[in-house]
Write a structure and sequence with these properties.
alpha/beta, 11 strands, Spermidine synthase, polyamine biosynthesis, 240 residues
């Protein structure tokens, strides 16, 4: 059941206080959509099981996730197919739809609440045009399950379901970054395909894991943030 309520830490009359727009018990725990500010300055946040996931304040690193994957593919690869793991606030999907070179755009999102906030909620302001793109589809599924069983391959896997390989949202997500999970990602890619993984901080351990899993050209691209360590995108490529 959906519960609409004000966040208990919101101060009445304070424009920058967080307001809970919707709180749902999903298949993997509680997910919350909050808003800070009002009007054009409003920022929406997604919280999962009390853990901040992402907000609409920036989006540069989520866009880099898609751009870096495309840039790593051979320039002559026609209409490459991309799998975006995690719909989030929609920046990565919107970026992919802006690029005419992409062919099939598949988004895998396991939380029905997040999908609903895009299709009939405030996050549609970011994703509505992309969702109307005939190349795009949303699949409600667990990402690792989809990677293991999907009947098709992708030229790029752009994954953003955690705060990073070392900072997972749910315990079960650890298996995605394990040797078996990375092997499944590699097998889901076409030859020369690219795996791109978003992270809130660099991880030398994950770079080693990518190399050990057989990925080539492993590297990390950074986005400087206002405070703290940079957001990054970890990249690896399946052998051609």
């Amino acid at each position: 059941m959906t519960t609409l309520q004000r966040d208990p830490y919101d101060t009445p009359g304070a424009h920058d206080g967080p307001v809970t727009l919707e709180r749902r018990d999903g298949p993997y725990g509680e997910v919350v959509l909050r808003r800070r500010g009002t009007g054009a300055e409003a920022v929406h946040e997604i919280i999962a099981n009390g853990c901040f996931l992402m907000d609409t304040s920036d989006g540069r690193s989520e866009r880099l996730l898609v751009d870096a994957a495309l840039a790593a593919l051979p320039a002559d690869r026609a209409e490459p197919a991309v799998l975006i793991g995690g719909l989030g606030v929609g920046f990565s999907l919107a970026r992919a739809a802006e690029e005419p070179r992409w062919g099939r755009i598949t988004v895998v999102e396991r939380e029905p609440a997040v999908i609903g906030w895009h299709r009939a909620g405030p996050l549609g302001g970011i994703s509505a045009r992309a969702l109307a793109d005939p190349r795009a589809e949303i699949v409600e599924d667990d990402l690792l399950g989809h990677v293991r069983t999907a009947p098709v391959r992708y030229d790029a896997l752009c994954l953003d379901i955690d705060n990073g390989p070392d900072w997972t949202v749910t315990e079960g997500n650890d298996s995605l970054y394990s040797p078996a999970g990375l092997a499944a990602c590699r097998e889901r890619l076409t030859p020369g395909g690219v795996l791109a993984v978003w992270s809130a901080r660099p991880s030398a351990r994950f770079e080693r894991a990518l190399r050990n899993a057989g990925f080539e050209g492993v590297r990390t691209e950074e986005i400087t943030v206002a405070r703290g360590v940079p957001d990054v995108v970890h990249l690896g490529q399946r052998a051609a």
